[in-house]
Amino acid sequence: ALGPSPQELLLQRITKVQQFYRDVDANNVDAAVALFEQQASYRRDGHLFVGRDQIHRFYQCDRNLTGEHEV
Known about the structure:
Blueprint: H1 6-25, H2 29-34, E1 41-44, E2 47-50, H3 51-62
Antiparallel strand pairs: 1-2
């Protein structure tokens, strides 16, 4: 078994990104943040958030945008 092809890997990544933005737009912070690795780094507007806890706090408390993403 060789594993997924490059095209399959790309499709998996695209699907994750689409799911992330659906969750963000639905304000489903827990589901959106669960898509990140435990020690992920996320840079936004000059700020660096490291780890799921910090990313979760940003989306739960600090992000004050509305609207929807088109991916």
